[in-house]
Amino acid sequence: MNECPQILAAEDSPTQVERLERLLERANGELGDALRTIEAFGAFIIQEQQQVSHAGKSATNPGAEVLVVEDSPTQAAQIEYLLQKREFRVTVAANGREGLAAARQRRPAVVISDVMMPEMDGYQLCRAVKDDPTLEDVPVILLTMLSDPEDIIRGLKAGADFYLTKPYDEGHLLARVDYLLARPVRPQREDVPEQLEASFDGERHVVSADHQRILNVMLSTYENSVRQNREMVKAKGDIQVFNDALDEKVTVRTQELQAALEGKEVLLREIHHRVKNNLQVISSLLNMQARRIRDPEALAPFQDSHNRVKSMALVHEKLYRSGNLAGIRFDEYIRDLTTHLFRSYGLSPRAVRMVYAVADVPLDIDIAVPCGLIVNELVSNALKYAFPEGREGEIRIGLRATSCGCALTVSDTGIGFPEDLDFENTSSLGLQLVCSLTRQIGGCISLDRTAGTAFTMDLPAPGRGVK
């Protein structure tokens, strides 16, 4: 009796469960206040509960007049039907003012009133009934959706005999009516008040009421609190069952998605592997054909085509061997590609030195393949034309992140790009490819001739500019 019923909080979904925990914590506090307030009446509560149960089983009140004051037509009709099944005569009023007039015109045995109503609320109606000498002994039951302790104090001050919290149990309501009919209410006398002192949320309240009325309302408070606690415990159990079922579904679905993802990764690796193999076949065919050609001018297009195919095959090989199928390590790719180009053109890395300044910028396959072809063309041009007659120098390849995406730079310290040649309007297939591929991935290209030759391609972020 002295211990508050323990309310457990769910520990699942963060947002909804945290809100539920706060509500449960508040309810626990309110319940504790109510139970501590009625602790002095603990011995009487058991006795009163037994009397209520006995009255509900044995009281017979055929034809007793019950006044129902309720502004909701649906709820009023529900209470009227419930009472009429027990052979009570029922009068219905839509607000406190109409209810008071009906009570004075036709004295009821019991008044059942909602609290929140227009014109005159339930507290005002209850006070008016208790202040009327002809109605002061008529018991009043307040029905409310409120559960704040101060509302209970207001009910006591208004002279309420019982109150029930909506949604109420129908059997509980009928038992209260029977109980009040079996035990007539004594009018409260102001000259001999009994006082109840209570403290809620740090505020002190003193209520003057007779012992029976205080006990009735405290008993109602206790029973409502226990019922609400049971409902919250049941709700917690329902939430736990729902969360367990949800967790199971999430686990099963996650496993299914993981299996599907692994299957797709295997498929993608197989695709990259086959594409790489097919490109290798094409590269080998070009090599075989190139070996039959003795004319250097006729051989050059085959060699260029072989290098272009090799640059594409190298991307798919990197993806096939990578742990991340979404992109490749561009720095490793560039080093392998330029190494192949040096071997292809028979140049020594001692004469022409490669310098890399490639940042760790993620490039997916839609960007990596065009960038690989662009680097292939520009490095090939530099190796063929920038360093004639054994001239020494260096080729720089840079990749850095920018606010809009990334910038790819290929430069050399060779003899420089011809001043009279427009690189965007040239018959060179390699430069045509560079300009076309840059536009294809949504970038723009510029040329700097101040110190050798430097091409810069400003490219969008992956996924934003590919056409």
Structural class: alpha/beta
Strand order of the largest sheet: 2-1-3-4-5
Count structural domains: 2
- State mean pLDDT (0 to 100 scale): 77
Examine the secondary-structure arrangement and name the CATH architecture of the largest domain: 3-Layer(aba) Sandwich
Number of DSSP strands?
Answer: 12
What topology does this entry show?
Blueprint: H1 14-37, H2 42-58, E1 65-69, H3 73-85, E2 89-93, H4 96-105, E3 110-114, H5 122-131, E4 140-144, H6 149-158, E5 162-165, H7 170-182, E6 195-200, E7 203-208, H8 211-291, H9 296-321, H10 330-345, E8 352-358, H11 365-386, E9 393-401, E10 405-412, H12 429-440, E11 444-448, E12 453-460
Helix pairs in contact: 1-8, 2-7, 4-5, 5-6, 8-9, 9-10, 9-11, 10-11, 11-12
Task: Give the structure's gist in a few sentences.
This protein is an alpha/beta fold and 467 residues long. The chain is built from twelve helices and twelve strands.
Question: Could you please describe the fold and organization of this structure?
Answer:
It is a single chain. By secondary structure, the chain is an alpha/beta fold. The chain has 2 domains: 14-250, Rossmann fold; 328-467, Heat Shock Protein 90. The chain contains 12 helices and 12 strands. The strands form 3 sheets. The protein has a 5-stranded parallel beta sheet with strand order 2-1-3-4-5, with helices on both faces. It has a 5-stranded mixed beta sheet with strand order 8-9-10-12-11, covered by helices on one side. Strands 6-7 form a two-stranded antiparallel ribbon. The chain is rod-shaped and about 125 Å long. Residues 1-12, 40-46 and 55-60 have low confidence and may be disordered.
